[in-house]
Design a protein that fits this description.
Length: about 300
């Protein structure tokens, strides 16, 4: 997908103080994460008959015990207790929780609605949206290569907008919500595991209230007469929490440049599944737009890889 230069690193680059064996384990953790996320549309498509909001509520509900068990095993409950006593931390966690819930909702709905190609585009342009947010909100300086990458991505969005007669809102909503999630997540003074638990803890009460409402109105799919749906919805917890846990471990053992290169596995798999499994259209206009995105990502990724060699 990315046209890497001949001297670009082909193996994972480990941070200082991390052994080659640890870096290899990190590469395995990250690969498993991206493969799970890449195949996730198949799971979501199997639940296309269930409303997206109900699926998201179950993702929240069944992620809670997994996230809590992880904190207990790792001995990180003390950090969480300190976070719960900080109104600012809770406010920021509420914001990130809302952003990730919005991202999940749009993603689940788009897969069911036959718009998986648009979700792939959203996750392709996400890193370019993130670097743009850094420039606009934090005053971070973009390199010339990054400016070119952002302009190419913008051109791709314009092409899709003109062709469709409206903004590709699914792609933009996914990219903006996830970029915003990553941006504000950095402000949380807790680790990724504690932060994830805090987010699902904030979301679990409204999610549970909604699911109870569905049960009382007879609209719920989590009932004994629909055991296949019960199994699918129960699996929402591991499908949500497991890749996030694997990613947290992998990120500690790999350099950002390596993770940045690997993250494009997910939208590539989504796009392939959308076209060859779901049969979604991928005409000439989309081909041109995606080609621009791939070129933009190649330029952007190379700018990250080359930066350390230039001394930053």
């Amino acid at each position: 997908m990315l046209a890497a230069a001949p001297d670009a690193p082909l193996a994972p680059q480990q941070p200082d103080g991390v052994s080659g064996a640890d870096a290899a384990r990190g590469f395995v953790f990250a690969s498993l994460t991206y493969l799970i996320w890449g195949f996730l549309p198949l799971y979501m498509k199997a639940m296309a008959h269930i409303p997206a909001l109900e699926i998201v509520a179950h993702r929240v509900l069944w992620s809670m015990p997994i996230a809590g068990a992880l904190l207990w095993v790792l001995g990180l409950t003390g950090d969480l207790a300190a976070a719960l006593r900080s109104p600012r931390t809770l406010a920021m966690a509420a914001l990130t929780a809302c952003l990730i819930a919005l991202n999940w909702l749009v993603y689940v709905w788009a897969i069911a609605a036959g718009r998986a190609v648009e979700t792939a585009l959203g996750y392709y342009i996400n890193p370019l949206v993130s670097v743009t947010l850094g420039a606009l909100l934090l005053g971070e300086r973009l390199t010339r290569a990054q400016v070119v990458a952002v302009l190419l991505a913008t051109a791709a969005v314009v092409i899709l907008t003109v062709d469709a007669g409206g903004l590709p809102w699914v792609s933009l909503a996914l990219a903006l919500s996830f970029a915003g999630y990553g941006f504000f997540k950095k402000t949380l003074p807790v680790g990724p595991s504690q932060g994830f638990f805090l987010e699902v803890a904030i979301l679990v009460l409204p999610a549970l209230a909604y699911l109870v409402y569905l049960q009382f109105t007879g609209a719920a799919h989590f009932v004994p007469s629909r055991m296949s749906d019960v199994a699918l919805l129960l699996f929402a917890g591991p499908a949500t929490a497991l890749p996030l846990i694997l990613y947290a471990f992998g990120a500690k053992l790999l350099r950002i440049a390596t993770l940045g290169l690997m993250q494009y596995i997910v939208p590539t798999m989504i796009a392939l599944i959308a076209v060859f499994v779901f049969g979604e259209p991928f005409g000439p206009v989309r081909m041109v737009a995606f080609a621009l995105i791939w070129i933009a990502l190649a330029i952007y990724t190379w700018s990250i890889i080359a930066a350390p060699r230039r001394g930053g």
